[in-house]
Predict the 3D structure of the following.
Amino acid sequence: MRRFPAEWEPQSGVMLTWPHEDTDWADQLDRVERLYADLAALIGRYEPVLNVCRDAEHAAAVRARLATAGADPESQRFGIAPSNDTWARDHGPIGVRTESGEHLLLDFRFNGWGGKFAADRDDRITETLSAGGLFGETPREPVDLVLEGGAIETDGRGTLLAVTRTLVDPRRNPGLTRDAIERILAERLGIRRFLWLEHGAISGDDTDGHIDTLVRFCAPDTLCYARCTDPTDADFDELQAMEQELRGFRDPQGSPYRLVPLPTPEPVLDGDGERLPAGYANFLLINGAVLVPTYDTPADVEALDTFRRLFPDRAVLPVDCRPLIRQGGSLHCISMQLMDGVLA
């Protein structure tokens, strides 16, 4: 049976799809590109980075950005693929190991979170990179199912965690029931256990409740999750209901999961005063470190302390994600880890 590795397992690199003037980042392009460059330089201290650029001219500009940020050029790789936007978590490849232990990259379809945004070029990025040799000899397997990487979490042992409406959705997968989707994921990802959430949402989220904004595996028996304790908060009811669902989940041995709450940052607002989906569950695990989104709120300190307890053997590194959250996503959303043995 195939196996879908957990994010804490060894990686060969992290993929970033860079912003450009034709993306929604245009009004803050310089600021967000500086963040990308600093992030690529930071990740490059631990493992390679695959920087996906729209064309050769864009790649040259990205190289210059990375040099200014002090990135080690030996740690940086480059791929060329036209893009609509930059959410690599949702258009990037999902790696599995086959029954014989070989690597395989699954290329699920991406339709802009149910057709909310144009995604025709993003949907072809994995195919383009694979054809260009960026993944070496690792084969690519197309899958005729809309699935975003941010919608699924695994313990690496056959359990998958997701919010039902992000997969069982007529705008994403018309006509497919939950049972039908489970059969596809069992075959393609090797999933044997499904933990479906019916609740959970944070204000400003365009994804309909991606699991990587709400709940994450930190170990096979441990889940960290977005918790809200303020009854006046707009997200209180949904997050409280989600917490009750989590308390009812059991691990493969029949024991309750260890649940570790994450603090709620003070509301981060856009220029119109609308709340943005800031949260700490959108962290990124890389070899030897955990990168934690921060938003310049007092809760940042508590969040970082929580991650130090969760991952005592990893460096805990804050990343100021205020530029990212203005477009409705954060650190995990813009990145996709590539499992060990994939990146050429």
